[in-house]
Amino acid sequence: MRMGRQKKAKGPRAVAECVGGPRGSFTDIPRRGADVWYGGLDAVERIFRNCRYPDNPTFRNLFDLYSLSPVAGRMVETFPNYTWDTVPTITDRGSTKRRSPFESAWLDFSENVFGGNPRGGLRIDTAGERPVFGENGLFHSLDVLAGIGGEAMLLIGFDDGLGLDKPLALRKGMTVSYHKVLHGGQYRVAAYNEDEGSVHYGRPEVYVTTPWKYGRDINESRAIPAGIEIHRDRCVVFKETRGLDYGVSRIKKSFNTILDIMKISGASAEVYWLAAYAGVKVETDPDARLDEDDRERMKREVEKYSEGLSRSLLLTGAKGELMYPAIVSPRDHFDMQMKLLSLDSGIPQRFLIGSEAAKLASQQDTDNWNDRVNTRRMTVAVPQAVLPYIGRLVAGGVLPAPAEGCVKVAWTDKTTTPLRDRMLTGRDAANAFAVYTASCGHKAMGFVDFLHHVLQFPRELAMELGEAYDAKFFEERAAQLASSRPPQAGEDEGGVRK
């Protein structure tokens, strides 16, 4: 029976019908082609069921995926690898010639106590402790483990003689005995702050360790017994967050996509094996007279070939022909999945695949990626890890209080400029400085302002260079330049305009 074409609703009624108005719910949406959206949210469940996707991956599922899948490992580790590959400079009062008490204490702590150095090395007398920063540092491990389940804990072992469940009290000469990095499966929140007058109201107050015995545990060497309560003053909980109060796993949204990549990879290997070991098609001659013994003997020959017991066929009244199946390249399917991973993680596809492929990226792509890393350092790494860690050390008396209670964390800018552009910039800066010197520009603009506003030097560096400023030098240099050049039109031999 042929149905007539229905007229489209106009005005508010059409909107009401689309959002489930008078006529019901999403089941009233017309179905065209594939029955995908029929049933509203049930369609998502149907897709998950048909694709064999898990409904809600647990931390154990995420941990397994990170432990076994190189793609998931790359998703988790890419941002930490680029974020913590260099050691930041930590100061409390800008660029000065002398170090402050806080800076001296921090350098002594980071370089001597735990064997670190500006290059992230490790001394041999530190009883296995790692440096705080660097590619093998504690913060790098903390960031990696937080990427699995959304958060991780850095436990600080203060040597104050109190239990881990006790609040931290200031004590002069406090030392740190150990660090432990725990992933999200090794602890849980035991109590929240219920003091409505506290700045920590509603936040976790006490954590408790949970049992975690697992064969694939990559962090088992740093685990502690279950049931140990840990006060918030004695740890730093790092959360990979996107403007939320809770941490977000770097692989949970991409869990199904990574499973699809594993399917593609496994299927491509299986297809290659089936194609490399070709099957055999046996065609008998219509005029050949074959009895049952001949047929049974040829059947055994084919079976021995298919089982790998023989590489030849002895046939009677028949001929064999190898069957080569058509092999479909998985490249296009893999590229599509990698684009989805790049879309979710915000990591450019070439950097997600690896450093060798990233070398082929354009300079613009590299600069954009470096900007993302620089932004993540200042918006995630510093407020979520570095500052809380230093705050715990100051609160316990390991470090003196910084000047005015402020700490400055500065990383080397990862944005690189091509050599040719740097050469042109240097030439223009030299020319500008020569003109500034020859024309006694210091009388119109101070030397520090010239370095900062014209040559774009950082304010601290400009002020440091400005300490050597000498107006007499500029005047003498201007006179030398004026006497060494021939008179110009309208000037006398002394360079004075007539």
What does the model show?
This protein is an alpha+beta fold and 498 residues long. The chain has four domains: 39 residues, no CATH class; 307 residues, no CATH class; 39 residues, no CATH class; 66 residues, no CATH class. Helices cover 42% and strands 11% of the residues. The protein contains 16 helices and ten strands. Strands 3-2-7 form a three-stranded antiparallel beta sheet. Strands 4-5-6 form a three-stranded antiparallel beta sheet, with no helix packed on it. Helix 7 packs antiparallel against helix 9 and helix 14 packs antiparallel against helix 15. The radius of gyration is 35 Å and the shape is flat. The protein starts with 11 loop residues before the first helix and ends in a 14-residue tail after the last helix. 20% of the residues are buried. The N terminus is likely disordered.
Structure described in brief:
This protein has 498 residues and is of the alpha+beta class.
Decide which structural class fits the backbone.
alpha+beta
Helix-strand sequence: HHHHEHHEEEEEEHEHEHHHHEHHHH
How many structural domains are formed by the residues?
4
Number of helices: 16
Strands of the widest sheet, in order across it, are 3-2-7
Number of strands: 10
